Amino acid sequence: MIRLEGLTKRFGEKLAVDGLSLQIESGEFFCFLGPNGAGKTTTIKMVTGLLQPTSGSANIGGFDIQRDPLNAKLLLGYIPDSPFLYEKLTGREFMRFVAGLYRMDEAYAAKKSEELLELFEVRDVADQLTEDYSHGMRQKLSFASCFLHEPRVVVVDEPWVGLDPKNIRFVRNFLKEKTQEGLTVFMSTHTLAIIEDVADRIGIIHRGKLLHTGSLPEILALASNPGNLEDVFLELTREET
Amino acid sequence: MSPFHAMLWAKWRVAVHTAASVRNESWLKIAVVSVSALLLWFGAFVAFREGFEWLRRFDVSPGKGFVGIGDIVMLRMVSVFSLALFLMLIFSNIFIVFSTLYRSREVAFLLHTPTGYRELFVARFVECVIFSSWASAYLGSPLVLAYGITAKAPWMFYVAAGAFYLPFVVVPAALGGLVTILWLRIYPALPARTLPIGAALLAGGFFYYVRSVLNAARLAEDAVASGTGIDTLLALSSQTQSSWLPSQWAAHGLVLASMGRLRESGFYWLLLVANALFFTWIAAETARRFFYSGWSWILGRNRMRLRPINRGLLNRVEGLFRRLPQPARALVVKDVKLFWRDATQWTQFTVFFGIMAVYAATLRNRAVPEYEHYRTWIAAMNIGASTLILATLTSRFIFPLVSLEGRRFWIVGLAPLTFRQLLAQKFWLSVCTTSAFTVGLVVLSCWRLGVEPSAFVLAVYTIIAANFGLAGMAVGLGSLYANFQEDNPARIVSGLGGTLNFLLSIAYITFLVVGETLIIQRRALGILGDGARFWWGYAGVLLFVTVLSAASVFLPLKLGHQHLSRMEF
After folding, report:
1. What span, in angstroms and rounded, lies between the C-alpha atoms of B207 and B205?
2. Are residues A199 and A101 located together in one domain of the fold?
3. Which of B257, B282, B306 is the last residue of a domain?
4. Residues B185 and B234 in one domain
5. Do both A54 and A158 map to the same domain?
6. pTM here?
7. Domain of B402?
8. What kind and span of H or E run contains B338?
9. Range of the domain at A122
10. B290, B306, B322 — which closes off a domain?
11. By the CB < 8 Å criterion, does B111 face chain A?
């Protein structure tokens, strides 16, 4: 569902992402792990079509995000760490706006919108301006709007900021359930406990290079001493001194 | 609903909610802003009306079927105004398109949805047109009304003026958009400040052109030689008459409408509409092909910098503040660095000083009038111009300083620093930076004009007082109407508080200039003589300037300080 081929991004002389190749299947929950500045966000920006790769390509559901962006983006949902909302729109108006961007049938979008607002517990505040929302409520509205057009691929960048433990559990389970229905999730996070819980496969990126990919047991097996994911991560991304 | 309609619908809802939020503002504030805006508009209307009436005096009974000289001069003046507005709109649209299309978080959000670049551009373009044109509508409407009344135009003229306005503002917006998109496509490898520097150079070239074409000295000399200077005025303004200029189509169409010649006026309107559609189409197609690569480049641009940026000229400037005590030094250095590193801030600042430089350069050429009362008039106008530029500077750059602490306000809030110290730092930063230029300009102009010592002293005292008064007002009202949610200074300024600050600044400088002009003009005309009556009046004006400026410093700062102290962060 997601196919990255030799994806490279160079900022001037700095190589941010170096020939990243990866295939993520339909219904897979892929977690992307790496230290700060490793190239995770740059990769996500290229996957979502925000950044032009210097070379290589990113395919979503068979559509190249650069050559056929509209078809690729119809399949894609994106949840950034700090969601953008229009401060002077209500939650319900924001959902209607997003439905328009995805050319959805208005009646169906309205029905779906109410379901999602209810599911993510923002229906009670749906007629308030989003400028009055807490960070957690903004994040929940961002989730609700992301799933409005029923994407087949969701890219999530550190989504837990501002969510309370109950909502973290809810979102985690919701995403996992969706993968069982065929949704592909590409998630970047530093919350290792969640990765251990949900990931079908983990990719570790360091200094722009994809070091390893594999299931949790496969990644754990990479450690020189038995340990948890944190130990393995620290060992694999240790800086040479 | 298509993405394009969804974007327009969302903007409409945002506008409705923003308008509704005005209900939460104080009615006093709304009343002050509305009344001041109306007064300013009415003042402009009276000035244009008087100007057109004066021009009509040159009519020498042309006879039936002929056009009088006054009408020709009026047409020229409308053309000059129209061209100036047109060029200003192109220039301002370059900045607006850059910030709306390339620097906005909203565009990043829209770009991960299936919205075409063409649709995205057109939707944002509509916003740019509205954003850039409301001020020109506000300034242009008194001119159109004054012209219509003076020319005894039929009611259809006013309908035509409305109809001409939309295509007239669309053409420069499309050209501004086109220039910005192509620039960011062609020169992505150039330094980040290329676009604003290019725009500033264009503006500088434009002002140089205006200065050389409308040379005040030549006009003044010819006026003396021929008695009117009308022939020179017509010759000089002929450069605005090119039939290739959309501004000329608008001016011509409007004048024809004022004569009731609607069929010919309609031709110019259709010409303007056709060009507006054509340039919008060209800009939209250019956006479809080139916008994304430029936007993506801008997104990654900040990460290209490998050299440490804390070197060079800026670090040397830091040395200037070595003697300042902490924490004032830390705040000043931070403000200067943030200002310098925001290209849209310092380029606009440069443009303002470009205007002042052109003004100072023009003074060099101006023939010094023989009569003292002419000299004092020009000196008073100098003070007016200098304080107006100063008011614009403080409203645009000093007013948002407290708001720009923004979401970082907790850093200042937690530091061992009182709000009183914070406001004092912003106040003195403003006074020290603006005084150097404005006081210098007034001293230079008075010296060039050779005004007599009493007028010289009063002018210099007035500009020094204005630096204090306007800084106090901007910092005080900037704290009273602090907007910590917004990090774009241009948007902070365009809010209710920013508008109120600008209008009060205009009122303040009007009082200063009127007070000063009254006393020195009356003396020049021999009404007050040289005796005690004059010196009592002179002392009265000095006292008036002092009291008014002190009130403008202390009252807003006190209110601003109280507001910040009561706020919860």
Report:
1. 5
2. no
3. B306
4. yes
5. yes
6. 0.74
7. 342-569
8. helix B328-341
9. 82-150
10. B306
11. yes
Ramachandran category for residue B168: left, alpha or beta (phi over 0 → left; psi -120 to 50 → alpha): alpha
Structure tokens at B93: 């649209």
Identity of the residue in B1, B116, B304 whose CB atom sits nearest the CB atom of A11? B304
DSSP secondary structure letter of residue B401: G
Flag if B114 and A52 touch (Cβ within 8 Å): no
Give the H or E element holding residue A16. strand A14-24
B152 C-beta neighbours (distance < 10 Å), count: 9
The pLDDT tens digits of the residues spanning B308-326 come to 455 566 666 667 777 777 7
Please tell me which residue, B427 or B75, carries the higher pLDDT value: B427
Q: In what helix (H) or strand (E) does residue B377 lie, and over which residues does it extend? A: helix B372-393
Token pair listed for A18: 């170096």
What is the average pLDDT across B97-116? 88
Cα A101 to Cα A86, B110, B191, B303, distances in angstroms: 14, 8, 35, 30
Give the C-alpha distances (Å, rounded to integers) separating B246 from B137, B165, B256, B272.
17, 11, 15, 7
CA distances from B525 to B2, B228, B516 (A): 69, 23, 14
Interchain pair A86, B106: CB under 8 A: yes
If one compares B555 and B63, the residue with the highest pLDDT of the two is B555
User: How large is the ipTM?
Assistant: 0.88
Residue A86 sits in the same domain as residue A144: yes
Distance CA B199, CA B177 (A): 13
Residues in chain B: 569
The A residues from 155 to 184 touching B (CB cutoff 8 Å) are none
Q: Do residues A70 and A12 both lie within one domain? A: yes
pLDDT at residue B48, rounded to an integer:
86
In a domain, A108, yes or no: yes
Nearest CA in chain B to A70: B114
